[in-house]
Fold these 2 entries.
Entry 1:
Amino acid sequence: MLEHILTLSAFLFCIGVFGLITSRNMVRALMCLELIFNAVNINLVAFSNFLDSSQIKGEIFSIFIIAIAAAEATIGLAIVLAIYRNRKSTRIDQFNLLKW
Amino acid sequence: MFLLQKYDYFFVFLLIISFFSILIFSLSKWIAPINKGPEKFTSYESGIEPMGEACIQFQIRYYMFALVFVIFDVETVFLYPWAMSFYNFGISSFIEALIFILILIIGLVYAWRKGALEWS
Amino acid sequence: MKLELDMFFLYGSTILPECILIFSLLIILIIDLTFPKKDTIWLYFISLTSLLISIIILLFQYKTDPIISFLGSFQTDSFNRIFQSFIVFCSILCIPLSIEYIKCAKMAIPEFLIFILTATVGGMFLCGANDLVTIFVSLECLSLCSYLLCGYTKRDIRSNEAAIKYLLIGGTSSSILAYGFSWLYGLSGGETNIQKITNGLLNAETYNSSGTFIAFICILVGLAFKLSLVPFHQWTPDIYEGSPTPVVAFLSVTSKIAGLALATRILNILFSFSPNEWKIFLEILAILSMILGNLVAITQTSMKRMLAYSSISQIGYILIGLITGDLKGYTSMTIYVFFYIFMNLGTFACIILYSLRTGTDNIRDYAGLYIKDPLLSFSLTLCLLSLGGLPPLTGFFGKLYLFWCGWQSGFYLLVFIALITSVISLYYYLKIIKLILTKKNNEINPYIQAYIITSPTFFSKNPIEFVMIFCVLGSTFLGIIINPIFSFFQDSLSLSVFFIK
């Protein structure tokens, strides 16, 4: 049973990384970031259910990860808002000011 | 299917449900009369005349409220474990939770004073 | 399990410096909210005072035996104390650097100070974190503040772009790190304390499994992103170029120091069962970053980008001490970090001063600066030469100790490449210095012409110049007294948790 959950979280992780690499829109990239964090959460909750059911440290850890992911998403969206105000677009591939 | 013995019922239900949904949709397609007209293509807004386009831009205000909401919504999650084990910890944890809420309140006051909660 | 939540009164002294900073940032926030009239001198005063108090407390307590507090989630020893005081020291130097820049860019001051203080607190907690949860939370506390600081000039598109790039890449790296943490949590049988994880891995005999290897790779990738080692360095030049310059000065030292402390703790305590494995990986990363950082830095045209690549190569040198792994190696690493603060902040102080007066960062616009401002060009020259490691200056002695320790421990290839690349680095530093000092007749570029000459009196100098002169003095003369410094750091590091077994 544990293997299935771990496989699920590994798939979610891979989808998240793939999406981060390929997505053109910034909001979509932020969503992929959330996917990776959710993969971590699934892993932690599964492990804490199977191995550590008395102290449930993993679930506490996942609460912290949820809170921090929310803060990160909020900061990301705020920066997206600032970018949108300045250049009326949120596409990643149009960010080419900083290059060598 | 051999690995997940507990899920046999689930798969039976899944089969039945998918069978029923296909059956019902094909029945309605077979029975219902087919009309074509301009009314068919308008969006459905609870029976009222639709106003404007389906893809409208939301006010940017909603966005600001959503940003503030997300932060405070998630921070309250930390209070649930504390509340569940309140009787085990005694008065000191109560004071610590008060400090935590106080910091959140300072954040809320900050958002308020900086005008993130103003609509106009 | 009975929880002792009033342990704060027992262990309060272990996090007292951090508590002072948190308290002062709350005070700054409340002052900003209650008084609409902006009296900014007070805000600077409060932040600098709290930083000073906390560094004094840290210096008084620097020789402590390892104490584990807060249910095993925080550990205090002399190694952490030294790195924490480095971080506070950087913040003390960086706040005067940013005063005039903020005034010119018309940014809000209280938020800037709050972000700087929060990042400092996050870095300080990161140095002593002993628990996976604490490591993750304090790491994010540091990096979330850094994203906000990068995008602090909201109207500037380049700053926005740097912020979003930093956010995406930093978020990716910390999520990969968290994925590695989740595997460690599972493989050790449900432990989050890093000493208990090692015991759990040894007891469950999973320390050689492929799962541990995946966790190790994930954690190493996350750390390498934070330290900007070479295959994971792509974000550094972009962020250095786009962000406001005082913020870059702050990030280039603080996040490096905190990341280095974290890497040392994780690799030494968590992966203490396979030291040869991580040393090989780190060696490859260090060699790559020394070679690529120095080679790419030659071709740069922007000063900030050049410094970004040079910082990538510097972190490669610093890693030699970590790879060496004995007391002398750690001591020389700590000393080099200490010198690096002076050299790097001194260089950045010069750049901030120049860009405030002319508004450009290009290297070629520095041509002929010597005619207009000898003080600035002299200090820039000294800092750059010290970064390159020319003999009588501080950077030379730091590098000498690092390379000598590496050579004695038998890392010949590493030290050999480090020697060659530091010669290459001298080339591009000298190129800039030649540009500054040589005078092309009748062809002064417009930026230099627009340069405002400062008043020669001593008291009318601005805070940036004070910091600049202080750092230049440090990066010139500290090398002479390296022997007492070395024995001082060696004494205190020998009390740290890595050497008390």
Note: Residues 1-90 of chain A form a domain with the Helix Hairpins fold (CATH 1.10.287.3510).
Entry 2:
Amino acid sequence: MDVEQQPAAAAAAPAPEAEDDEDKPTEQVPDMAVAQLAFVVTSGRGTQDDAKAAMDIITAKNMAPFYKALCAKSPQHFALDDALLQRMEAENAKTLAEIDAAQEMAEKDSGDVEVLDAMFARAAHYARIGDRDAALAAHKAIVERAKISTGRRIDAAMATVRVGLFHSDMPAVKEALASAKKLVEAGGDWDRRNRLKVYEAFYLVLARDMKGAAALLLECVATFTCTELCSYEEFIFVAVVTNVLCLPRTDLKKKIVDGPEVLGVLPSLPHLQALVASLYNCDYRGFMAAMVEVNEQLLSDRYFAQHARYMVKELRILAYAQYLEAYRSVVLASMARAFGVGVDFLDAELSRFIAAARLNAQIDKVGGVVETNRPDKKNAQYQAAIKQGDLLLNKIQKLARVTDV
Amino acid sequence: MEVDKVTAAATAAPVSAPAADDATPKAAAPITLADIKRNIGFIVRATESNQHRLTLRAIRNTTAIRTRVAPAVLKEAVMAYVPETHPARAQMLETLDALPAPAVEAAAEPPSEAASMEVEGEKEKDPAAPEGAETPEPAKEKWEEKLSLAAPEVETYVCMLVLAVVLRSGGETGALLPLANALLARVTSFNRRTLDHLASKVLFYCSLAHERAGRASDMRAPLLALHRTCCLRHDEIGQATALNLLLRQMLSQNLLDQAYKLASKTNFPETCSNNQFCRYLYYMGRIGALQLDYTDAHAKLTQCARKAPANTALAFRTAVQRLTVIVQLLLGEVPERAVFNAAGMRAALAPYLQLTQAVRLGDLVEFNAAVQQNKATFQADRTYTLIQRLAHNVVKAGLRKVNVAYSRIALADVRAKVRLDSDAGAEFICARAIRDGVIDASIEPVEKGAGGGAARCLRSREQGDLYATDEPQRAFHRRVAFCLDVHNGAVRAMRYPEDAYKRDLERAKRKGALEDKTEEELAKEIAEDMDEDGAL
């Protein structure tokens, strides 16, 4: 696998915070930080500083279309400043005119490479100022252009994915990912391949496929170079949160708790570190406390925000299942003590999850005892066979209609 | 009735789905007499060779004509193919004259690629067949002769077209009734098996005309009489159509008992038409659900959903799905989430999703809110009666959850969980649920040996091993039976060209001779071989 061959360069020198991207030589296009800041502010969780930081980036990059859309979406957080908008639009028009001139000249005097450069510049400009439709169209023009090296074609396809992710435009991301994957399959180098994995993982997080995302992210932990999408810390946050949920305990120990790359960054994410450590060490009280904090973080992350409830629920189920695994029966009160919650709360939680067949247990409310039982594999298989068989039969029936014609 | 909008679409066979290729020039071509003529060619051949499938093909090809034909063209057809002795000829022409010329709808269902390709394929197969529009001059007389032999069929076909087009154009349907009745009377006066499919279409449109005019009950007596006649004549498609129309009418007028009795006293010919069978299943599912026979209704509806056309008849499929969801809920099952996300049905099923979630949570308060909020929708869908029955199921669902989650729980806690009014009420409801088999549990005093006044609790029985019972056997048997049905249907549907077996026979003979030879040789060789062995 090509992942192993790559030096852990990124791990050794984690990228700085995304917010001070302007200082870096390579610029994030489009700037994911502003999308995150705007999300935090519009969801009502941001501070004055966040709003100001967002506005700073918007002004610095002349993101007129993005600004306009943002003001239209939540006028209570971002009041439209007409003068500013006009100034930015004028700037954008100027930049665009420069790009136009460059492209015209390149088409007249220079070769394909220069024309392509101009096209990339145009696409990047649209992406930078947050003009989604124009950016998607400009990138599409590059991808569909004849006479272009595979590498650059993939670059354009990947940039399309970024534009989609920037605007949280799921259909666009899905489509762009599919085309980028096809291109990479046809002849991409390992670097682009690994970057694309991260892109896909972020998309899967948005689509609530945590398992798929976790596997992809885990593959990329050692080879992360994808600073154009997120900082290494953000990446590790996403990777750890998804993997805590999906990895079995033994793998969790090997890959996350003891993983060198993760260990390097985890201290800067104290709540997450506490969450992982307490789950692994069966400190459920600490786990519940850490989860409250992580929940806050999830809610203010634009990828996780709409899945925060789901994530926290799944994490709780995980902890309950792990706790019950060790017991034949346990007094409800003692379990409540271990988790640092009230008996009534725990009772409500357990009964809900047991009824949904997520936990293998039963509660004896009169005796105040939780009794665990082993999952019934044979019956589960039987149910699965019936269910999937019915789906198959439906399809057969559809085919059989041919005979009625 | 919810099937209203769909019936037309459901009539069209699945192959002629409104294809998306209306950009092709063929799609925009106006319907001419030649198109009608081609279909008449099919009908003539069908009559001549007594092959129903050709009639069916003509009916299938009719969808495009029906939706786009201009009254003038149709008038020409009437002039050409309906004999002057026909009692309703003048009336038809008059009605057609009164129709406004339709605006050209470019997007209106274009003739699907598949259908037209099929026709071409047919041409290649037997070029000798008269192809209507392309009849060469020398064959003309022969064609006329054949046409005269199939006169009732052709006439009925044109009449059916007229009815369909006039009905489609909307307008005053009341004025159409005399014409519809006259046509129906004329059609039923024939007794020809080759006419059955066309006659059933006329019957369908006639009944639809009555329904649109708000005089559906006028049709009941004639329909019943027709159904009897069709039974006597072994006219299966006629039986099926008449029965479905009757059921539809009775259900739309809430004559549930009558519909139930009618259905239980009649046999539905299942094999004659998939679409009619589909409708019948839906009506039976509806009757079953209203008659509290949920298991049967569920089976019928699932089968119906399986048999329904895949691409067309969206409203019909949605209606089936709605009913299925409710019947499933009444059965105490929770439908799959994916059901509500099916393409095109999402918006229509949203209120039912809300309902399902309330039932799943066993939350009576939320359930009532959902019902109140969507009352108008449910009434329009005619599912409100069934939904009102669901209220009990909400409590049952809550109880079932409690039963699964708790091995022992005090009745006071049950009351709090299911949000009932009193402990005594909780006890009664639990007792009833146990008796109904909703939950597998027993009620006993908390402390052994305590008096009758002591607190009681609900004890769940251990969940038995389902696999140890014969339930899996029965479940698998049902599915195997279904597969065998499909297989038998496929075998029955195979068609063999006439006299093909003779050719096969000859070929087999020749081949057989060849093989005999080689076998002889083989035997010889073996014998020689053995001889040699023996010599050694």
Note: The two ends of chain B are 91 Å apart (CA to CA).
